[in-house]
Amino acid sequence: MKTVLDVKEVTKTYPKAESPSLNKVSFCMSAGEFIGIMGASGSGKTTLLNVLSTIDTPTSGDILINGIHLKDLNDSKAADFRRDNLGFIFQEYFLLDSLTILENISVPLTIMKYSPQRIESMVRSLAERFGIATQLDKYPTELSGGQRQRASAARAIVKQPSILFADEPTGALDSNSATELLKTLKEVNEDLHTTILMVTHDAYAASFANRILIFKDGCILKELIKSDSRHNFYESIVEEISKLDTQRRQQNEH
Ligand SMILES: Nc1ncnc2c1ncn2[C@@H]1O[C@H](COP(=O)(O)OP(=O)(O)OP(=O)(O)O)[C@@H](O)[C@H]1O
Predict the structure, then answer these.
(1) CB of 60 closer than 6 A to ligand 1?
(2) What are the residues facing 211 on neighbouring strands?
(3) 30-40 tens-digit pLDDT
(4) Is the CB of 155 within 6 Å of ligand 1?
């Protein structure tokens, strides 16, 4: 399988910080993988996402996406690279309220100068998959939070990014909407081979991934690989996270 992301000994130390927020982190991601990034608050998840997505630069180490060294990109090239290769879903939806849902999802393809017919057919087919096909002529404020988040995910996926970065995508959703979104992300991962890297605190959300990297103090503490059912994977994630919580509590008591 083709390597999409290659992270080599990446360290990030913020100015004036006493210790690094990422400490020699290395891992690879193959095309079509779905990785979950977990870890307690302050373990370095956001810092990792920022350096992987060219929003920030590491202090040392190398990051390659599709063989391209991110350190070779200046600010303007990095912006073009993000636009052309990366997709983002955040806890907030960031839809444009003055555009319809169809227009919102179309934005990346309009920028890429696709023909209107092609744009409409790509958007409609993805909207179908995300269960928002009947909402395309509405404005974001007319949709529920779950529908807005699905529209936001469709907008990120429609341009077929090399990697989709999802930062707590279910954080603001009720449990039904979260499940709907996660199921669709999994489907997109399996059917369209979208490569997904998702940061989450939630073991249930993480169980939709195939591999979990658990961070502690800026390092990868543990890797969990899904071997059978999602339910069993969920149980092992919960077990691992509880173990870490217990250790942390014990350390704090001493
Ligand atoms: N801009 C910054 N300047 C200095 N220190 C920072 C900055 N951003 C993060 N840190 C520090 O880096 C460490 C890792 O932070 P980071 O936000 O990456 O963790 P996180 O795992 O995403 O936490 P959370 O789950 O709370 O979002 C923390 O100790 C944090 O205080």
Answers:
(1) no
(2) 35, 225
(3) 999 999 999 99
(4) no
Number of residues in the chain? 254
Task: Show the DSSP H helices in the chain as ranges.
Answer: 45-52, 75-85, 101-111, 116-129, 145-157, 175-191, 203-206, 230-253
For a mutational test of ligand 1's pocket, the pick from 16, 21, 37, 215, i.e. the residue with the most ligand atoms closer than 8 A to its C-beta, is 21
pLDDT tens digits, one per residue of 136-165: 999 999 999 999 999 999 999 999 999 999
Residue 47, ligand 1, Cβ within 6 A: yes
Sign of CA dihedral 197, 200, 203, 208: negative
User: Tens digits of per-residue pLDDT, 202-213?
Assistant: 999 999 999 999
In order of their start, the domains of the chain are 3-253 (3.40.50.300)
Nearest CA to ligand 1 atom 16: 44
